[in-house]
Amino acid sequence: MRETDTRWGEHLVATVLPWWERAVRPGGGVFTCYSNDGERVSDELYTWSQGRWAWLAAELADEAVAGRIPVDAELWRRRSIETADLLSRHALLGDGTTAFRLTAEGVPLPSGAAGERATSVFADLFAALGLAGALRMLDDGDDRREAWLSHAEQLLETARRSIANGTAASEPYPVPHGYSDLAGPMTLVHTAAELLRAAPRSETALAVRDHALSVLTTDFLGADEWWEFRPADPRDAHTLLARHRTPGHLLELTWMLLHARDQGLARGDLDAAHAPGAEQLAALARRAVEIGEDTEHGGMLRYVDGGGGPPTGIRSDRPERYEDLVTRTWDTKLWWVHVESLYATALLADRTDDPLLAQAAARLDDYTFRIFPDPAGAEWLQIRDRAGEPLGEVVALPVKDPFHIARSLLLLHRLASKNHTGE
Q1: Distance CA 50, CA 73 (A)
Q2: In CA terms, which of 59, 284, 300, 377 is 20 to 30 Å from 150?
């Protein structure tokens, strides 16, 4: 990352946010069902995206108040609150889960094969994340504070239990029987840490955060290696599911863990043994870059083998959608992989003075801003093939993501601003 670089904030304000202004839903929320080239194909509302939008709007309001981003703080504060209100009124199902999809008017839609409305623990956790962000925006006397905190805590604890006992539905990335996934405890840590920002006395958020940190450090993360899907039976270690890695996912986790550690140490409630420090996270990040970087075309591959190269390993003897996803899309170049990897390498290079991570951040910077922004100036073409050409297919949800690009640009700009001012 270039010293005192202001391009992140400028690109966020001049290019990314103006595109999303056209997608704002009157009364709260955001329309996200767009093709890769920006054509709206549906007005359905995915709870996954609405929760992320509520959190992002709150963060933009905070940055405006801090004087780092020239946007209207009150406008973004209102958008966060209105989106959280949409979630609270329409997406919550009363049992600690959420409807995966809503109509444009907010009516829950069936999404599962048997008509289930709740089909993803990640949608539940992103709803909790959005409520956590919006809680910071409410006035002290607002009578919604108690209800929203209770909703977020219920979502968080229900998710923790279902992930722990292996019953969590996890669309659009179904976890096959006999495996546990990194994404579950990773999202628990991040959501719990964000709820603690809004409600420092939340015993639920604190307990879930520390539980998820323990699971991550005990079951998934080594000194410089990690599991994406951990097999319950060690004899399955040579399967495709166990051998594959998602380098961008691991890099995203490294900055989340560093943020959670910083927060915990500042609060005085987190023993250093509960979370990896910057040096261990830097070692994991170096390994992710080593096996994930595409030395032929540049950028980061979506999925790789744990030893590097295309994913390999024994496939299940029954059809598994996730295995098909890994083998079919391993070499695609995705927006979220690149911006999350860029922020993680830049942050860890800043904390550790690691020259390899600083060099990786510079390469990711050059590649990401050469490949992903729309040449016509309309946000980014988020999905690319290995050579960097636009790819018109769905890779997870049938949505255009409003979250990763804006969040990473905001965090990169904040990091550069703090370095420049000496904060």
Answers
A1: 19
A2: 59
pLDDT at 421 over 60: no
CA distance 83 to 131: 9
CB 192 within 8 A of CB 184: no
pTM higher than 0.90 for the full model? yes
Tell which residue, 96, 101, 100, has the closest CA to residue 128.
Answer: 96
Query: Position 208: which residue type?
Result: V
Distance of CA 78 to the CA centre of its chain: 23
Alpha-carbon distance 139 to 126, whole Å? 22
Contacts of 146 (CB under 8 A, 6+ apart): none
* Domains (range + CATH), the chain: 7-415 (1.50.10.10)
What pLDDT digit, counting tens, does each position of 304-363 carry? Answer: 999 999 999 999 988 789 999 999 999 999 999 999 999 999 999 999 999 999 999 999
**Strand ranges, E, within 273-408:** 304-305, 333-334, 383-384
CB-CB neighbours of 111 under 10 Å: 20
Which residue in the block uniquely carries the two structure tokens 């691991």? 250
Residue appearing with tokens 């179904």? 174
Are 231 and 246 contacting, i.e. CB atoms less than 8 angstroms apart? no
Whether 2 has a pLDDT exceeding 70, the answer reads: no
Burial profile 70-89: b = 16 or more Cβ within 10 angstroms, e = fewer: ebebeebbebbbbbbbbbbe
C-beta pairs of 234-237 under 8 Å, 24+ apart in sequence: 236/178, 236/179
**Number of H-type helices and E-type strands within the chain:** 15, 9
% of residues, the chain, pLDDT over 90: 88
Q: Is the pLDDT of residue 401 over 60?
A: yes
